Amino acid sequence: MSFYDTYLKIKNEPYEEIFASFTVKDVDRALLKTSLDEKDLLALLSPAAGERLEEMAQKAHRLTLQNFGKVIVLFAPLYLTDYCVNKCTYCSFSFDNDFPRRKLNPLEIDQEAKALKDMGIQHVILLTGESKIHSSVEYLAESANILKKHAASISIEVQPLETEEYAQLVAAGVDGLTVFHEVYNEEIYKELHVKGPKRNYRYRLDAPERGCKAGMRSVNIGALLGLDDWRKEVFFTALHAEYLQKKYIETDIAVSFPRIRPNLGGFSPRFDVNNKELVQAMLAFRLFMPRAGITLSTREEAEFRDHLIKLGVTKMSAASSTVVGGYANKKEDNSQFEISDTRTVDEVKNRLKQLGYQPISKDWDILADLEGENVFSNARNHNRETRAGASV
Amino acid sequence: MDELMIGETKLTNRLFTGTGKFADHSMMKQAFAHSGSEVVTVAVRRVDLEAGHENILEDIPPNMIIMPNTSGARNAEEAVRIARLARAAGMGNWIKIEVISDQKYLLPDNEETIRATDILANEGFVVLPYMNPDLMAAKKMVDAGAAAVMPLGSPIGSNRGIRMKEMIRILIEEKTVPIIVDAGIGKPSEAAEAMEMGADAVLVNTAIATAEDPVGMAEAFDLAVKSGRKAYLAGLGPVSQRAHASSPLTGFLS
Question: Transmembrane region positions (chain B) (predicted)?
């Protein structure tokens, strides 16, 4: 069983008709429920729900406050390398885009991590292009090892890996995995991912599940909005999140709602997703999964991000650089996509405080290697003793 | 003097508080000051000793006992590691064990909690396990060395009151260590209810931290806990579903 089986079952539903069939009454009914089903989710994503955004926002705000409190966890991406073997029409890192590629060495990684810590960032997400050669599991594990000295939590956003490979990284101290499926619509997926291993739809779709199996503490998924009808894509994303949460109840499942940004390839989104629609997408998801994380990146503009905070966001990036080596040596270079919110960490923190939220820089301690052997051997002895005791 | 003993420590106030979910530290500090609370739980994972004035420990009134918790632990091993981190960081000897391997309802894993209690009690910690109210599990935690047992009233942060009332009543009846009702208490009246039932203390975090006026709410909880405790000590009258006719079966004897 994989989410792909679910996808096959639901992919050919007449979504346009379904969305058009909902009325404001259906939306109101969904708003009154404490536990929402798929039909409610569709109603909240429908055009009819556009008339109930304020009500949805109020409830989303209340639920988020209750479940997560008045706090927002801050993080930033650290780009390790931009080598990539894929050709994707919407991404600057595509192998046929001609620009000098880089890969950080251990010393540079240390400098980047230190620079991030000095900025006030301790939750770091390691990013790479997709290349098993330039961003091998060994390289990622080594990077995590260096990061551990400066960070409190390490996530990865790299090419999809095997379960054992994810497990290797978990052992090295990585606790989070982000894999955006980009577009759930399989036909469009094939059109946009022209060359390279990323063309393998199923292998990418199952990557979050492999991460859960490998013991990642949190798994973040998302669709790149603008590649197909957002209502459909958000519906698939939410069902994917629910599928993972049900099956891997110990894993924190989070969702992002990235919108297409300008990039080197000059790709423009096929479907426009305006601010109101992005808000609706986020609210519908929050009401459907009140306990799930919602991650917000600096793709969005500062003022808009400030408004989104109260609508369900639990984690946001700050002062991001999408350039390899962009923190220790600030210079113009080729980025994966353009950043919209260019505020510093301190500026973001101060704004959060003004809005009545506590910015959280540290929300975990990397436990890998930490007195590790000791604890486990004690625990094992303890188990043996208990069992021995029971049998006497 | 109506005192509560946790391990070797005497407490006079029966409201425990927590640092989670507050909008800012100064609000939190004020709320604690008005709560009368003597014990505050802090998530170790949120403690940043290098954060200078932003270090949350700096904003906890010095008269309060810090009860670090293992929030984020998904099994006994992680809870043990986090507890040791807390001790190494100078957060004292108390530890509230939270082992939660369910991210949807945030329900504690009693089995792993018992294992962690055993290891940490042996290491000299004053162990207060957060648990799903189950008598057998509570007994095992006490046997393993728990200084108190902290059953949930409802799932964490749900503000739904004492939904586990019957099971908690049994824990209280059978208790050999203090019972502290933790999680789910959304209103002062519910805190009073737990205290009237005979709970030794309650832990309230979300309801105070996310109130519009956390300071006012902290005061309200303090009063409710005191009131509930007083009612319990004064001996509540028995509750009956209907009126009693006087001795319909034995009246002939008089």
Answer: none
Element (H, E) at B127: strand B126-131
Task: Count Cβ atoms within 10 A of the Cβ of residue A111 and give its class: 0-12 exposed, 13-18 middle, 19 or more buried.
Answer: middle
Q: Which of B10, B21, B29, B96 is catalytic?
A: B96
- Whether residue B79 is annotated as binding a ligand: the answer is no
**Does ipTM exceed 0.85?**
no
pLDDT at B242: 63
Tokens representing residue A203 in the block: 């292998």
Among B20, B85, B103, whose Cβ lies nearest the Cβ of A252?
Answer: B103
Interface of B with A in 70-89 (CB under 8 A): 72, 74, 76-78, 80-82, 84-85
The answer regarding whether domain A3-363 maps to CATH 3.90.1150.10 reads no
Beta bridge partner(s), residue B202? B15, B181
| Residue B107: domain span | 4-253
Q: Are B49 and A365 in contact (CB under 8 A)?
A: no
Greater confidence, B244 or B133? B133
| Tokens, residue A240 | 């994917």
Q: Over range B166-173, report the average pLDDT.
A: 94
**pLDDT greater than 80 at residue B245:** no
Mean pLDDT of chain A: 89
A263's CB contacts (< 8 A; 6+ apart) are A90, A91, A92, A336, A337, A338
Q: Which residue, among B210, B236, B205, has the nearest Cα to B40 in the 3D structure?
A: B205
B187 is catalytic: no
Q: Is B192 annotated as a binding residue?
A: no
Contact B209, B215 (CB under 8 A): no
**Record: contact B102-A249, CB cut-off 8 A:** yes
Q: Model confidence over A3-32: pLDDT tens digits?
A: 999 999 999 999 999 999 999 999 999 999
Which CATH number covers residue B20?
Answer: 3.20.20.70
DSSP per position, B140-161: HHHHTT-SSBEEBSSSTT----
Q: Express each pLDDT in B108-146 by its tens digit.
A: 999 999 999 999 999 999 999 999 999 999 999 999 999
Domain regions of chain A by residue span: 3-363
Position B123, amino acid: E
Structure tokens at A345: 């960490």
**What is the per-residue pLDDT across A141-200, written as a single tens digit (0 to 9) for each?**
999 999 999 999 999 999 999 999 999 999 999 999 999 999 999 999 999 999 999 999
Whether the Cβ atoms of residue A239 and residue A2 lie closer than 8 Å to each other: no
The C-alpha atoms of residue A182 and residue B156 are separated, in whole angstroms, by: 34
pLDDT at A332 (0 to 100): 58
Low-confidence winner among A175-179, A296-300, A348-352, A358-362 (lowest mean pLDDT): A296-300
The predicted pLDDT at position B36 comes to: 93
Query: Which residues in chain B are closer than 8 Å to A367, comparing Cβ atoms?
Result: 78, 81-82
Determine whether A384 is exposed, middle or buried from the number of CB atoms within 10 Å of its CB (0-12, 13-18, 19+). exposed
Q: How far apart are CA A257 and CA A57, in angstroms?
A: 16
Contacts of B96 (CB under 8 A, 6+ apart): B41, B67, B68, B69, B70, B128, B129, B130, B150
Residue A334 in this model has a pLDDT that exceeds 80: no
Rounded to whole angstroms, the maximal C-alpha distance in chain A is 73
Compute the distance between CA of residue A167 and CA of residue A58 in angstroms, rounded to an integer.
Answer: 40
pLDDT at residue A386 is higher than 60: no
Count of other CB atoms within 10 angstroms of residue A366: 18
Domain count, chain B: 1
